[in-house]
Write a structure and sequence with these properties.
mainly alpha
Amino acid sequence: MALGATRGDVTRMMLRSGLTLVAAGFVVGAPAAFWATRFAATAIEDLSGGGVPSVATAVAAMLVVAALATFMPARRATRVEPVIALRSE
């Protein structure tokens, strides 16, 4: 998969893979969060929904955390020699 790839290629490949999973989670989770908030607001009188700013802040924070959680192992993977990685498999 990464044989012959540069360090930048490996990093981009791993970041794309990790952030694709996060994006899929947002596509499913954001509508579910809005629905759950509206449902809870009907059940609890004093509950304010928070709206788009709170969801946008949560999305931004999760993107930063996901990017860091993906980048750290990607950086470590670029420092391993391909021959050593193939021997360990």
